[in-house]
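Re: the request from the purification team.
They wanted to know what the chain is likely to look like in 3D before they choose a buffer screen. I agreed to run a prediction and write the result into the notebook, where they can find it.
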Amino acid sequence: MLYILYGEDAFSLRQSLERIKEEAGMAELLEANTTIVDGQQLTLNQLMSLCNTAPFLSERRLVIVEGLLQRFESKPGIRRHDHQAEMESKRKEIEEWQGLNTYIKQMPASTLLVFIDGELSQDNAILRSLSEIAEIRTFPELKGKKLQDWIQKHVAENNGTIADRAVNLLVEAIGGDLWTIDKEIEKLLLYCSGRTIAEDDVRRLISQTREPNILYLVDAILERRVKVAHQLLHRLLEEGMLPSHLLAMLARQLGFIVRAKELPRGLPRAEAQKKLGLLKDYPFDKTLAQAKVYTVERVREVYNRIVETDLAIKTGKYGEELALDLLIAELCRLQKSA
């Protein structure tokens, strides 16, 4: 069986993956028969070898491939004289993977194969070729009314209620980051202890957890969520955050991203978390996702902008608030052009 899970909503995507595991049954044995591989360098022969391996003391084997279909996406912003070379490279890759469709039909029934990707275009060659034989689930980023409805539903599923104004404040403070919203809802439910979550509860809890909010701000900047980044920045500055602390946290996260890119392929998750010093799932998963987007050159460029901003503040070239606003705008512009 082949599943293709893709989209910007990584939280819902991971929940869907967990349901696939639950439906397969025998969770303990399935965990021992699960292989997770990076699809960026994977060959078809390597994938077939993994899928042909018989499960050990279990009826099922789970193979999860991350980022394979992204290889067949057109790269934005490519120079015209490089376009022909890129098309030739893509053509060769597509030819190499043309046998995947045929192989899936012959794949051992004991194997569950799951492709996980970010946002994909509908003209993705491999996605199109597998559309008739795969169960495809898409997870677009939730916005506006859909995001508000998701928060209401998520609170209700955890036996709670939340006021509309409290929902609006959560969205304003965090944006569409469901990982973060999930954690905040968990804390709010404990804090409110059975009563309806009100706007003041959200405001009070957020003000009591300033350090996590700095981390959310770092993520918003690095993930190009401009509106959320500006909102968090100005609120944290009003609460007394030092600009130097934000710059230090940004530089720290860039260090994690570089180290994540250097992790050996196939390293077990627990060992990878230990090497990075990120033992909690949320920051670890966030860092891996960011490492897939950032090249070493982009990391260097972002770091240089951080240094320039620090110097501009210290020399009085710009005021602190203006310097950080300009930094956010510049970093998001860099990422768009990249």
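For the purification team: The chain has three domains: 2-138, 144-208, 233-337.
Please add any questions underneath this entry.
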